[in-house]
Amino acid sequence: MPQTVLLAEDDRAIRHALERALTLEGYQVTAVADGVEALAQAHRTPPDVLVLDVMMPGIDGLQVCRVLRAEGDRTPILMLTALVETQDRIAGLDAGADDYVVKPFDVEEVFARLRALLRRTGPAPAEVVPVPVQVPVPAETEAQPPGRLIEAAGLRIDVQARRAWRGQRELELTRTEFELLELLVRNAGIVLDHSTIYDRIWGYDFGPGSKNLAVYVGYLRRKLDEPGAPQLIHTVRGVGYVLREH
Asked: Quick one: 117 and 153 in the same domain?
């Protein structure tokens, strides 16, 4: 049975072109022209994934995203945006979006991001622990095996319930933020390079020019950091990121 896509895009040419491309790729597509129709359709027939244009008249893509998340709907959402500033992308993440594509886009990139989002909503694959990069790893910091509750650096994650805490404070995380934090916690003390993180989280390496990972790391840091407490996610320049207390 084909996977279902709800596409909301007010530009008729883009909507028709993307609807045709997604249909040829094997998806079952419902295309609408605005946020009101998108919400009505999502409530009537929940799709496997939503593709929302940010800038739509009336109810825009961000508002659609906020409404669905407030209702507890965790369907993956890919945003289409002509806005390229970091704060604009953060606004989408804050609204609850899982990923975004900047216009003008290559349709193959849209396909790749949709495949990655849909894989993450299916059965969890066996955990593959990446090889440490550049930094020797002591025995006590070896990657943790899969399990329900994992802990590192004062963080606790309930994998099955998809909940996370720093100390006693529960963190409000989007789907992508949770998966990024889980990857870092499982590999606490190990420097993960950009390619490894892209492969584990998005299933696709968007290349050295992409700011996608930096945006998510920055946003996750904002939710993790506390006044007077050590920063937990550290940048290893030219390599990637590592989770540690010091």
From this structure: no
